[in-house]
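Field reference: "sequence" (input) and "structure" (output). Example, FAD-dependent monooxygenase:
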Amino acid sequence: MNRALVVGAGIAGLSAALRLHRAGWRVTVLERSPRLRDGGYVVAFGGLGYDAAERMGILPALRERVLPSGELVFVRPDGRVRYRIPTSTVESLRGRRDLNLLRGDLESVLHDSVRAHADIRFGTTVTAIEQDDRRVRATLSDGSAEEADLLVGADGLHSTVRELVFGPERRFRLDLNHIASVFMLRECPSAVAGRSTASLTATGRTLAVLRLDDERSAAFFGYRTDDPDRQLALGPRKALPAEYGDMGWLAPDVLAQLPDAEPVYFDTVSQMRVDRWSRGRVVLLGDAAWCVTLFAGYGSSLAVGGADLLGAALERDSVEVALREWEARLRPEAERKQQLGRRVKGLYAPADPFRLWLRDLPLRLAAVRPVTRFLQRRLQLTG
Ligand SMILES: Cc1cc2nc3c(=O)[nH]c(=O)nc-3n(C[C@H](O)[C@H](O)[C@H](O)COP(=O)(O)OP(=O)(O)OC[C@H]3O[C@@H](n4cnc5c(N)ncnc54)[C@H](O)[C@@H]3O)c2cc1C
């Protein structure tokens, strides 16, 4: 029986584990965190990932976790409403084959589906990787060693597997000069009513408060920076008050919840440009390989869809041929989404009032049918 070692139990790693198990492989997963992460942020899950989830039989479980769509409310600094996009327009923009999910819920469904079939080791990572043309050997952080026919690096944007086998992160990372941060709120500010997302965009920064369902709400921060590494070094608890302390509106309420928030997602918005996603028997998957970014809104879909296509390719061919054909099939779609991410990056935190006005023009008219279709085309939504 073929053996796979998967590094990372995020969306990409758990999908790969499930799909390779279905392809008849014995799978071990290494996850650095002590346990499965929960919460996270909201992802729109459609396209290639939705089709793959249907084939993998996890769609019914995902449907049970779907967050209802809500209206989008865009406000002025004093909290007065500038304009709204009603729920019905949000739904028709996104189309029927698209689910609104918390990242943690998507991971938990994948974990439930695969945990009986794979050896998942939390609190463990990889410290060295060697390979020849038949096997790959990994040294683990607990001092043990594992051999496999294939090692899947699904360990995200700052991948250790990529660093060990492909080279330093700097060589591949294209910064889009923004920081994104999300955390779940203990208490949703009462100004955000019903199932809605309220957001304030000022020059170079956006704050959004999302009321997800009756119990859960989250805060999203997205801002421009010329020096993402400096922001990363500061970390969320210093950087967010410095960037948003003078914003007004709901910023003081939300920032007051930051000290106790756990976990806090805080990272650069960066793409990975890796010329080939495999080296011998080591393959990168998900954000480790391509990271299309939240601007493209498609990374979780590509992670699940990419894992499904990888499993299908390995069912048909030898590892060498499968990796080549898999990449030839997937790369055009990943690069199209990367281009989208670069093209729309200004929408989240427009650089000046004129660009903000330009951004808002089609959004204000989003409910008008031809404008809905224009937005679907521009944002590559399936509709
Ligand atoms: C704010 C935000 C909004 C987004 N919105 C959308 C959206 O609407 N639609 C969409 O499709 N996508 C969206 N995305 C993108 C999507 O969430 C990612 O593309 C997806 O989570 C990538 O999954 P991954 O498994 O490749 O990486 P990750 O989610 O980064 O998971 C990597 C896993 O590997 C583990 N790990 C890391 N290093 C190691 C190591 N050395 N050893 C072992 N384990 C390790 C981590 O703990 C983690 O569990 C969004 C992203 C953000 C930040």
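The mean pLDDT is 94.
The two ends are 42 Å apart (CA to CA).
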